[in-house]
Amino acid sequence: MLQLNKIHHIAIICSNYDISKRFYTEILGFKIISEVYRKERDSYKLDLSLNGTYCIELFSFPNPPQRVSQPEACGLRHLAFEVDAVEFTRDFLISNNIPCEIIRTDEFTNKRFFFISDPDNLPIEFYEKE
């Protein structure tokens, strides 16, 4: 059987590089590992880490096609982050003008969670620590 070790990274193509870079670094707190402009592609590639672990590649491309991104659409459902304090996280995001859904409770785990959308409408979930 195939042996996978872990998820290496998540790649996100954004429509507005500066807005998405600010969102992921200044709002969500990812740290920049490296940032490269690839002239031949007219594209930025931003490598981001969370708590010292490389996990997101943020790309810009000229005129990327739109994709359906609602949580119930076929394909990537959402990106989820574990948080210690759901209310604090939601309050912080709201204070930074990020619209947040209401806090819900998972009927199977009894853990609380809520959703936001990134600048390109990618659903992001914040889930209470296990």
- What general outline do the C-alpha atoms trace? globular
* CATH C-level of the largest domain: Alpha Beta
Distance between the termini: 29 Å
Class from helix and strand fractions: alpha/beta
User: Approximately how much beta-strand content do the residues carry?
Assistant: 35-45%
Any guess at the CATH architecture of the largest domain? Answer: Roll
Count of alpha and pi helical runs: 2
Brief summary of the model shown:
With 130 residues, the protein is α/β, with parallel strands linked by helices. The chain contains two helices and eight strands.
Description:
It is a single chain. This protein is α/β, with parallel strands linked by helices and 130 residues long. It has two domains: 64 residues, 2,3-Dihydroxybiphenyl 1,2-Dioxygenase, domain 1 (Roll); 65 residues, Roll (2,3-Dihydroxybiphenyl 1,2-Dioxygenase, domain 1), CATH 3.10.180. Helices cover 16% and strands 37% of the residues. It is built from two helices and eight strands. The strands form two sheets. Strands 1-4-3-2 form a four-stranded mixed sheet, covered by helices on one side. Strand 6 and strand 7 form a beta hairpin. The longest helix is centred in the first third of the chain and has 11 residues. The radius of gyration is 16 Å and the shape is globular. The mean pLDDT is 90.
